[in-house]
Amino acid sequence: MTKNETVSIEPGMSRRYFLQVGAGGLVTATALGASGLLTPARAAAYEKFTWISPRGTLEVLDDYPYWAAKKAGYFGDLATDMQPGPSDGTATVKFVDVGQADMGFPSPGVFSFAIQNGMKLKSVFHMGARDTFSFAFRKGEGTKDLKTLEGKTILLGSAAWQAITDPLLAAQGVDVKKVKYVEAGWPTWGTALAGGQGDAALSWEGLRAEWIAKGLSFDYWLGVQHSKFPANTFVVRSADLEDPDRKAFLEKYLRGWAMGLEFGYQNPRAAVEAVFEQFPTLASNLGPELGTTSILQQVNVFRGDMDKRGGWGWHDMASWQGFFDQIHKIGQITSPVKAEDVLTNDLIKPANDFDKAKVKADADGAKLSDGFAKVDVEKIKANLFNGAL
Length: 389
Known about the structure:
The protein has helices at 64-72, 91-97, 108-116, 162-170, 189-194, 207-213, 223-226, 244-266, 268-278, 280-303, 317-329, 339-342, 348-351, 356-365, 370-373, 377-382; strands spanning 7-9, 19-21, 27-29, 38-40, 49-52, 80-83, 103-104, 121-125, 133-138, 153-156, 180-183, 200-204, 218-222, 234-237. By secondary structure, it is an alpha/beta fold.
C-alpha cells in the first residue's frame, strides 16, 4: 500500500486487528489470510468521528475535557469515538493521514514528523498553550542547566519522542548530537529511571502526579517554567477543512472540547470524577487528591495566559514559528515551515461560541462524592510545582 492509498473496513471487522505501523513509518493493513477484505476508502461525511490518542492508552486524565463534555452532553448528537491507538508515538498522525482516524493529538515534534513526511495535515485546535514537557531526574541528581545532559542518557517511552526532546534541548543550548536516547518502553520508562537506568527521562504535566501515585518521586526541569515552545495539538486532514459539511462538524465537535475545558477549569474535581467513572482502575490507582493534582497541572498547560489568547484552542503563531525555526535549524525538518501554512485559527471562534455562564453553572452544580469534596484545590495549587528544580 502506498502512502496515498487508504482502506475501508468491511462491516464486522475491527481495524485494530489488522492495522499495523510499519518500519518505514506508514500504516499498512494485513488481510488476515482472507481475500476481498480491503476496498478503497470512499469519501463520505463522518459516520463516527474518531479521535486517536498519542499514548497508546485512554486510561489517563489528559483527555478530561472530552469525558467531562460527554457526561454533560456538550457533544449533543454528534457520533464520536475515542481510540487509544498503538503506543508508537507517531501513530496518532499516521492513522489520520491514511483515513483510519479523523483527528490526532500529536506533540509539536510528532506533528513535524508528519510535515516532514508529506502528510497533508493541519492543526485546528491547540490544546497545549504552554510547554507541557519536562525532564525527570532521580532525587538529588537533577540540574537546572540542561547542557549538563551532553554525554548523558535520556530514557523515552517511544523512540518517536526524540522529536520532542531534541528541539527542547537545543533551545536550551544543548548539542543534541551528544545526547544518547534509550527507548525504555511504555509505560515503564519512568520505572526504569527510578531503577537506576539512564540519567533523565522525558515527562509532562499531569504525568508527574500519576508517577507519584506509582511511588516514583523525581526532581523536574519543567517546560512550563523554562520553555517558550507550544505543546500537543489537534490535527485533521487538510482536505476535511475544504468540505463544508466536515468543517461544520469540526466546529461543533471542537465546541464540545472547549466546553469541557471550561468545565474543568471551573470545577477540576468534577472533571476528574467524569474520567474516573470511565476508568475505575485509574480511579483506584490515583484517588481524588492525586487525580485533582494531575488535572490542575494540565489546566495550567491547556489554558495558558487566556488574556492573550483568542479562546480555548487558539494558536500562538509566534510560539509555533519559533519551534519550526528551531527544528529546521537542527535538521529535524529539511525545509522551513511557515506556521500559518500548517496551523489555522479559523475554527477557534465557532468552537468558543458557547454559553460560558451555563457551563459555569453546570460545573458549580456538579455533585461531588465525599472523597472529592474533601480535596483542597487551593492547597494543591499552592504546591503545584513541588519538585521543580
